């Protein structure tokens, strides 16, 4: 059964350390995804999705332009990042992992999303709705996400770890 991500009810946010102390937060505003949920055998489920890089916003226009620019995401050459699951599980109550491949800037790496199933949500349009929270920790270096050398300054200005959180609402199609 296919369930599509409802972007108006979902969020994809990240946080990264700046100067090793401050937290810089951002959000992607344009994304899509599909969950092929096997309710009888959840490990047979699969997930795929993509994010439009140019939709990133951090609250500061100059920083947004820098993040979208050639030195980091290079949104003109690599307009989307994508994810495709390879395995779902193990399951522990309403918690489970989604293993898969994340591609950013044509660099593909294995990642594991830690997911909380928030269950079926009240339907207002006659279709079934379901919600999930997910988190993943990424290394900028592993995806070759680097600022110009002066901005990197040995990782002091912008930390390597990016903590990503997703609040995903899907609708059965």
Folded structure, characterized:
By secondary structure, the protein is mainly beta. It has helices at about 60-70, 150, and strands spanning about 1-5, 10-20, 20-30, 30-35, 45-50, 55, 80-90, 95-105, 105-120, 130-140, 160-170. The protein has 2 helices and 11 strands. An 8-stranded antiparallel beta barrel has the order 1-4-5-7-8-9-10-11. The model has no long low-confidence stretch (mean pLDDT about 90). The protein has a single domain (about 1-170), classed as Lipid/polyisoprenoid-binding, YceI-like (Lipocalin, Beta Barrel).
Structure at a glance:
By secondary structure, this protein is mainly beta. The chain has helices spanning 61-68, 149-152; strands at 2-5, 11-18, 22-28, 31-36, 46-52, 56-57, 80-92, 95-104, 107-121, 129-139, 158-172.
């Amino acid at each position: 059964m296919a369930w599509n991500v409802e972007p108006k009810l979902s969020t994809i946010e990240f946080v990264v350390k700046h100067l090793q102390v401050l937290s810089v937060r951002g959000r992607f505003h344009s994304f899509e995804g599909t969950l092929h949920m096997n309710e009888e055998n959840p490990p047979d489920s699969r997930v795929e999705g993509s994010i439009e890089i140019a939709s990133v916003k951090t609250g500061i226009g100059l920083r947004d332009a820098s993040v979208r620019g050639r030195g980091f995401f290079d949104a003109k050459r690599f307009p989307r990042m994508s994810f495709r699951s390879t395995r779902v599980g193990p399951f522990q109550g309403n918690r489970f992992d989604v293993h898969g491949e994340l591609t950013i800037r044509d660099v593909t790496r294995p990642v594991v999303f830690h997911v909380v199933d928030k269950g079926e949500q009240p339907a207002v349009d006659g279709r079934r709705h379901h919600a999930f929270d997910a988190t993943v920790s990424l290394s900028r270096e592993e995806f070759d996400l680097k600022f110009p050398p002066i901005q990197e300054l040995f990782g002091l200005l912008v930390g390597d770890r990016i903590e990503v959180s997703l609040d995903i609402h899907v609708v059965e199609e």
